[in-house]
């Protein structure tokens, strides 16, 4: 298994060398907006999901070829599930003075042993997207052993124990957690956690579930002002616009495919897209199971499927 990826330019972190600690797709959550894909192993049980020596050996090789700004522990799932993440952090420290960042959903930080393991990082970037238990469930579809109060307690406790920086990420989804009530209830929780930064994000790449829709830049800006000076918008606003356009076209495609079978060229001419763009879109929808494909008299047609969530 390849554990090291990049370095890739990151808007938030500079040139980031990624360390993937967790196999696809093992996570404590199954978020609507996940860009990695649907969670196939939803768990809160930690394990040595990848041998530490293998990870550090691959890191040695990569660090001899590149000079990243940060080393980011992340993965195809939740990195704090790796119960030797502390050894990995210490191993990185021995090799380089490059800053160590952990991208986490924060769901296991109520567990003292998990918290202790991450204290050696320089920057922890947990997620908190709602203070409303029902919305939290809708967005994250967590493992049954998790609940919002416990997760917030874990984040508060992390703040007390961790000497590095905390950048709290809020993923905002149109029509789900962008209302006045949602944001007003979130603010006091953020104040308890006292992150150095509050990073507002939304969906840009195709999400695991099409109900996760990007928030427009006007509303992002309003929320940023409401949350105060530590808040910043970290998403590329132009990319959000493109994603919203793509989303609308995808919905139009599904809407038509529910009524009649379509060929790629039909979709291209009705949506004003190139054949290549339609092929990419169709491929994504087939993988998610929202379209099915049928061969008819030597031509390929696409039509709606039972898995279509709309
Ligand atoms: S926590 Fe991250 S990896 Fe896990 S399902 Fe959510 S977005 Fe995907």
Low-confidence stretches: none
CATH fold-level topology of the largest domain: TIM Barrel
According to DSSP, the number of beta strands is 12
Mean pLDDT over the residues = 90
Q: Give the CATH H-level superfamily of the largest domain.
A: Aldolase class I
What is the CA-CA span between the terminal residues? 36 Å
Nearest-angstrom radius of gyration?
Answer: 21 Å
Which ligands does the model contain, each kind named once?
Answer: iron/sulfur cluster
Give the neighbour order of strands across the main sheet.
1-2-5-6-7-8-9-10
Shape: globular
Proportion of beta-strand residues: 15-25%
The helix-strand sequence is: EEEEHEHEHEHHEHEHEHHHEE
Count of the domains: 2
What does it look like?
The protein has about 300 residues and is α/β, with parallel strands linked by helices. It folds into two domains: about 5-235, TIM Barrel, CATH 3.20.20.70; about 245-305, Winged helix-like DNA-binding domain superfamily/Winged helix DNA-binding domain (Arc Repressor Mutant, subunit A, Orthogonal Bundle), CATH 1.10.10.10. It is about 40% helix and about 20% strand. The chain has ten helices and twelve strands. The strands form three sheets. The chain has an eight-stranded mixed β-sheet with strand order 1-2-5-6-7-8-9-10. β6 (about 100-105), α3 (about 110-120) and β7 (about 125) form a beta-alpha-beta unit. α1 (about 50-65) runs parallel beside α2 (about 85-95) and α9 packs across α10. The longest helix has 23 residues, at about 235-260. About 40% of the residues are buried. The mean pLDDT is about 90. Iron/sulfur cluster binds near residues 29, 30, 34 and 78.
């Amino acid at each position: 298994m390849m554990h090291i990826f990049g370095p890739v330019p990151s808007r938030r972190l500079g040139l980031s060398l990624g360390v993937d600690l967790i196999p696809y797709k093992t996570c404590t959550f199954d978020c609507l907006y996940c860009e990695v894909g649907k969670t196939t192993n939803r768990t809160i049980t930690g394990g040595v999901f990848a041998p530490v020596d293998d990870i550090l050996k691959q890191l040695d090789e990569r660090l001899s070829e590149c000079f990243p700004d940060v080393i980011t522990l992340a993965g195809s799932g939740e990195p704090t599930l790796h119960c030797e993440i502390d050894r990995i952090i210490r191993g990185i420290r021995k090799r380089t003075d490059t800053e160590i960042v952990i991208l986490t959903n924060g769901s296991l930080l109520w567990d003292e042993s998990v918290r202790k393991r991450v204290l050696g990082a320089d920057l922890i970037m947990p997620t908190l997207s709602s203070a409303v238990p029902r919305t939290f469930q809708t967005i994250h579809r967590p493992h049954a052993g998790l609940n919002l109060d416990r997760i917030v307690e874990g984040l508060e406790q992390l703040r007390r124990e961790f000497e590095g920086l905390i950048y709290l990420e809020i993923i905002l989804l149109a029509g789900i957690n962008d209302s006045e009530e949602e944001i007003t209830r979130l603010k006091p929780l953020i104040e308890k956690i006292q992150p150095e930064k509050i990073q507002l994000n939304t969906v840009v790449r195709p999400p695991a579930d099409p109900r996760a829709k990007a928030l427009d830049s006007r509303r992002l800006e309003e929320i940023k002002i409401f949350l105060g000076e530590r808040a910043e918008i970290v998403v590329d606003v132009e990319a959000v616009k493109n994603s919203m356009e793509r989303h609308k076209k995808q919905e139009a495609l599904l809407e038509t495919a529910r009524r009649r079978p379509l060929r790629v060229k039909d979709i291209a001419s009705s949506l004003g897209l190139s054949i290549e763009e339609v092929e990419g879109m169709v491929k994504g929808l087939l993988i998610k199971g929202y379209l099915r494909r049928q061969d008819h008299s030597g031509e390929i047609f696409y039509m709606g499927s039972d898995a279509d969530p709309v």
